[in-house]
Amino acid sequence: MSDELTSVYAPSKTILVDFDGTICPFSWPEQPGSPFPGAIETINKWYDQGYRIVIFTARAWSGWDRLNQSRQAAIAQVEEWAIRHALKYHEISAEKRPAIMIIDDSAVTMSGNHFWHGRADYYLELNLAGNHMNLQASRDLEEKQNGKS
């Protein structure tokens, strides 16, 4: 990989944060609402500490073009929101890339081999049922109910 590409995609100081459902409630295609409490302050603190902040959004996914939402308009919508709420960032993107941390409302943390033995299907069922609660909190609750914690 070239030095230029390495610096652009270097995960060592990059934090990716999803927009809808993570920084603010999911509202696509409508205008984004107010940020979740603590989101702006935390992201801005990381920015000030020298982390590269990349906001990624499915609003800018090329497939939405057929729904009359251009990629550029989607990025502009998130940029305007960020300015209005004084959110500091380096880039807004439709792509996930290497990072030291990815924060996403639909992500599942895989930690070891035990994930694949029943846990993956459990999380899929939660999402298919429209339950987008914090999956780690769900796992913690399940373990507490089963007397494992």
Topology:
Layout: H1 3-9, E1 14-18, H2 39-48, E2 52-56, H3 71-84, E3 91-93, E4 101-103, H4 119-128, H5 135-145
Parallel strand pairs: 1-2, 1-4, 2-3
> What fraction strand?
5-15%
Strand order of the largest sheet: 3-2-1-4
CA radius of gyration: 17 Å
What separation lies between the terminal Cα atoms? 45 Å
Q: Please tell me what the overall shape is.
A: globular
The main sheet comes to: 4 strands, parallel
At the first level of CATH, what is the class of the largest domain? Alpha Beta
**CATH fold naming of the largest domain:** Rossmann fold
Q: How many domains?
A: 2
Low-confidence runs: 132-137
Named CATH architecture of the largest domain: 3-Layer(aba) Sandwich
Structural class: alpha/beta
CATH evolutionary superfamily of the largest domain? HAD superfamily/HAD-like
Q: Give the mean pLDDT.
A: 75
Question: What is the number of helical segments per DSSP (H or I, 4+ residues)?
Answer: 5
Helix content: 25-40%
Per DSSP E runs of 2 or more residues, the count of β-strands stands at 4
What pattern of helices and strands is seen along the backbone? HEHEHEEHH
Q: How would you explain this protein's 3D organization?
A:
- The protein is of the alpha/beta class.
- The protein folds into two domains: 10-103, HAD superfamily/HAD-like (Rossmann fold); 113-145, no CATH class.
- The chain contains five helices and four strands.
- The chain has helices at 3-9, 39-48, 71-84, 119-128, 135-145; strands at 14-18, 52-56, 91-93, 101-103.
- Strand 2 (52-56), helix 3 and strand 3 form a beta-alpha-beta unit.
- The chain is globular, with a radius of gyration of 17 Å.
